[in-house]
# Entry
Amino acid sequence: MKHLGRTKFAVSSMALLSLTLTGCIGGGSSSTPVNPSQNADAKDVTLSISANAILGGKSDAEAVWITKSVIPKFEAEQKAKGVNVKVSFNPSGVEDEAFKSKMSLALKAHTAADLVELDGIWTGEFADAGYIKPLNDVVGKEKVTAWDGWKQIQPGIQQFTSYNGQAYGIPEGTDGRVIYFNKKLFQKAGLPADWQPKSWADILSAAEKLKSLSGVTPLQINAGTPMGEATTMQGFLPLLQGTGQPVYKDGKWQGASQGVKDVLDFYGKIYGSAKLGDPLLQQETDGRSKSFQLFADGKLGIIIEGDYLWRSVINPKGGIAPMADRDTVVGWAKIPAQAPGKGVNGTDFVSMSGGGGVFLNPDSKYPQQAWELLTFMNSAKILEDKFIPTPQLSARDDVNAAVLGKDPLLTYIAKEVLPVSGFRPGVAVDPQVSLAIEDATGKAASGTSGEAAAQDYEKALEQLVDKSNVFK
Amino acid sequence: MSEIDADAAASQKLRKSERVKRKGNRTSEDGDSAGLGKGRAAAFVAPAMLLIAIFLVFPALWTLYLGLTNYRLTGFAATHPRFVGIDNYVNALTDSRFLNSLGLTLLFVLGSAVIGQSVLGFAIAWMMTRVRKGVKSVVEFFVLLAWIVPSSVSTFLWLALLDRNNGTLNTLFGTGTTAWLLQFPMQSIIVFNTWVGTAFSMLLFSSALGAVPPTQLESSKIAGAGAWAQLRDVIFPHIRSHVLTNTILITLWTFNTFTPYLLTAGGPDHRSEILPVYIYRLALSEGSLGQGSAVSLIMILINLVIALVYLRILREKKS
# Structure
């Protein structure tokens, strides 16, 4: 009797659970149909914006712009139209990977902000997961095509927030990678202030000279998993571009090719045999921040970074590692190919570019008003509030024309670097390939041979994409 | 469902009480020593069972289910997970990263819990029986402090302590720029976890030591027993069950602790990637929720085995 009761209880609770389980996963994000006209005429509206930016911390300028310019001006504009809008800002100040996990979980749980600022390389996987939906579906095709901003944004840049030919958000801007150096240290080591390396060997020989200065790490090229995407974008990919073939071509990924081996060997030389970089910095959890601090303190000679370093890190105004004499001490040059003419398409110099954008959460209760806020944020007038104080490569040509002339580095990137720059493949598996890349560079930097690290990388790649989609 | 249950329970209760009246008190014979009757007993247990079902059984079953799919945090497989059978389990058990992680976890548990916390906790408790009350309070206060300070705060302190460039430890010992967390990642988190968790063992052992009859200690002293002989022949037999309880509890806690992530994030090169950290990185950083679930379930099973062994030993002791 007693046992029967227990069995009954067990059976019925199992049945209940399996009912709950059925269709539990996957159901959430695809089942709710989007209704563009929902609450279109509401007079009291609440909206929210999420970005990996926080006052006094990461991307301070962005946070200042959203809270001091975008929100009050948008609320005032709406008030004038008789709509009472309250916009809130959800700040974050964490590593990009952590922010990505946070946003995917929030979108999955239907609790994300109405507008979310994301890296363009995540567009594919977020779209495939149904976390974001084409603007045409969320807002309505007429409204979207009617926006006058599109013609200011070049098609290549529109790709950052598009997937399979559909726009999911509006791109904010782009960037480019250069090789920065400290002119003071260069002078001490007898190197020129207008340095422009023409090959990897030139980088090594300059670093070799810097080695004679005590307390100075000559060279930093990001490697390893803790640096995350910074390893991929500022390290492996620009180097790989310099060996002749991009990482992704005609639907296929580059496996353990000669180029990949050369790049990994180059890492091995820098952090191993030649001792030009600090291998421990590639392993520390906050290694990237430390490399920034070292560069700002004049203890690091050469570093490959994006214009983010110039704008948001060593910027004497509002940078996270401000460098009072930035404008006189910091020099920059184009990243050379392995040897002249070895770059993709036969170029002498290479770079990588990417960019993020603001996406509209398909769960927004006020899709029309969220779209208005999104376009308001990307209007030339309001973007100038952000880019005049801290210039940046905007997605919009008209804004670039107005702000870039004020900043020498950004002018340089726009003119010299973007024409030779490569872009990330806009496919969903790309961020996973990126993890395999980070792992391989980390191994190469801590002593594994280029050959072995390349083989491991190819093995990891073959688990992600079919073997037939790997080329050498 | 609950109303029907309640009705059934009520009527059952009525019948039961009638039966009790008719046949006299037979409750102790059928094992119902509290005299509640099945219905009322069930009603008492129901809330607990419900909580266990919602927060324990359901997640465990769901984990089991997710572990059989290629479910991911993002991408196509997030909305269209495919059933992959036991692939995830086979992958885990043959993956060197999982085996590495399992090995590190065992080392971590052995080093920081079984040896570190138990031995240190006992040593402190034992020493505190021989010092003045004031000293005892001060020592216990500081040991407890390590336990009750929030882990985000204490890990920050440890990061400052172990930092390579400006760390307190390097300054104190003149060890140059030793990168403790990179060169000795496992040792670092083992020492850290010992520091955090010793308070529990200390508290448990000091109350256990209080229960050792002083007369026995006195007579052993008179008989000429040294400290070690006292420990082995007088004290240990009295606290054996406490040692067992302590070991099993801290083993389970340590097995599941995530705090070392805040110090080393599993790195460098997976060298301190204990299972909870491995699962976090696999499921959330890398987005492989299916694979992560499979590893989680393996971890649940290991926990169950540990708990079963514990229960078995306890039962044997009682009988």
User: Anything to note?
Assistant: Chain A has 21 helices and 17 strands. The first strand of chain A starts at residue 44 and ends at 51.
